[in-house]
Amino acid sequence: MEHPEIRFQILYYLYNKYYGGQTTKLHSVEKIIQETELKNIDRNLINGDIAYLYNSDLVTGKGSIGNGGYPPSIIITNNGIDLVENIINEIIVNIRNQQDTTIVKNEIELISKSDQRTRTTKAWDYVNVRPELFISVGEKVLKLFLSAGY
Asked: Is the pTM for the entire model greater than 0.85?
């Protein structure tokens, strides 16, 4: 897993917690790792990416900043929420523009007409069950938004 995907996994987890009613709850980095696909990723990579998100004001937290350069518990910021939604919207546009099949276009059209939270969840689920889309569209979009140039 590359840095942009690690960063998105963290932001997506926090996004869902935020819109799941936990708008003020901080989430421990350890719990985030255990509840996502990050549990088998090198911890040094994760630490660096959490520090990146923290220093980019995409997440914030309380408590003393540890050796990794970020608080032990974090929450998504408004900038992080906007970024997750922008990434998902860009993925939808890219899939819509690159797919020839009517079935895929119709499925994406239904997803794109949902409210933003539902659209975000459905679009990410859609990409995850179709890895061929992720390779061609998802990686490109994540790199665009979550690479060092952000």
From this structure: no
